[in-house]
């Protein structure tokens, strides 16, 4: 674990937060003071199913995934996080109930993280931070609903095209077996699409 004094790292966090809702200077200072650096090695389970998520993470470096372990220990990849995004098991964090999913690092990863107790106190004390949290949660829910529609109604090729259009960089960042799982495709179909679909 390495601790530093913000700088460029907190500037990146501020840029992401203010994209959703700019905070007054005093509230930003209170918010920024609650984030602390932490590092994890590659293939580390940060949060396991059955545990309560205690932290909200901002990814400084690395790639992570949340996945569900189904019958027969089949892994289903639910979501990825990477540099410049938030991470963590959002529902477990917000509701403080046991997670149904796992969060693991796919690569060595560096984060800023905030405890739930700090988060809850900030929400109670600062109206703009509360507003930011509300809007950020609504944006995340909108993204999840879009993804649900894609999974339920799109063909394999349409799912693949959406992935390439929205996040082309993930093909270099994330092992293809996890991308196939995320799209609900078998690895053979994913490989065929890799070879045939061009944007």
Automatic annotation (TrEMBL):
InterPro entries, per the entry: cNMP-bd_dom, cNMP-bd_dom_sf, RmlC-like_jellyroll
Domain of life: Bacteria
Every Cyclic nucleotide-binding domain range: 17-138
SMART domains associated with the record: cNMP (SM00100)
Protein name according to UniProt: Crp/Fnr family transcriptional regulator
